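Case study.
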Amino acid sequence: GEDVEQSLFLSVREGDSSVINCTYTDSSSTYLYWYKQEPGAGLQLLTYIFSNMDMKQDQRLTVLLNKKDKHLSLRIADTQTGDSAIYFCAHLRSGGYNKLIFGAGTRLAVHP
Amino acid sequence: DTGVSQNPRHKITKRGQNVTFRCDPISEHNRLYWYRQTLGQGPEFLTYFQNEAQLEKSRLLSDRFSAERPKGSFSTLEIQRTEQGDSAMYLCASSFDKNTGELFFGEGSRLTVL
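After joint prediction, the assembly is written out as follows.
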C-alpha cells in the first residue's frame, strides 16, 4: 500500500527479540493491525491496537504506537523458528467500511 | 472447519479465458471483502460487500472483473478475458459488523495466467 511502509526483510537469531517497524500516513486511522502470513497460507491476525493507546502487550508480542510520528512497531520476544513468516502492518482507513490498507510486508527469517 | 473457505485453491488458465473464484465466509459475518496479492506485495483492496450490496469497488477492479454476493452469503469473483497481469493470489475475507475492523482471511485462490 502506498501509504503504509515497512522494511522488507529482517533476520534474527533464535531466542533474540525481533522488532518490525511500520510507518503510515493516515493520521485519522482508528485501528492498526499486525497480520502474519506463512508460506501458502492466508493472513492471520496477530494483534491490533486502538489509536488512543500507545502500547499493547499480548504474551510474547508487544505493539508500540507513536501516533505523533505515525509509527507502529511489533516486538516479538524470544523469537522462535516458527515465527518465520511475512508480517504485514495494516490500518483501518477512516470512513471506510472496515477496509484495511496493508503494507508490503516484512519477511522475518529466524536462524539458529 | 468454520473459517473462510475459498476455491479453487489454484487455477491455471490460458490468456483470454474466463475464470471464477468462490468464497464462503464465516456464516454469521455480514461483511465480505476481496483483496489481490501479488508477489512481494501486501494485499490490495478490490471490493467490499455488506450483505448482498456491493458498497465499494477499487480502481484496480477493471471492467473485466465482476463480483457478486447474491444472497448475502457466498461470493464469486469472475475475471473475463484473463491477462498475464491478472496472475496473483485472490484473497477473500469476512468480518462481523463491529468496530475493531478485524478481518478473517481465507487461504486464497492463486491464479496463473499463461
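Observations recorded in class. The radius of gyration of chain A is 13 Å. Chain A has no helices and eleven strands. We will return to this complex in the next lecture.
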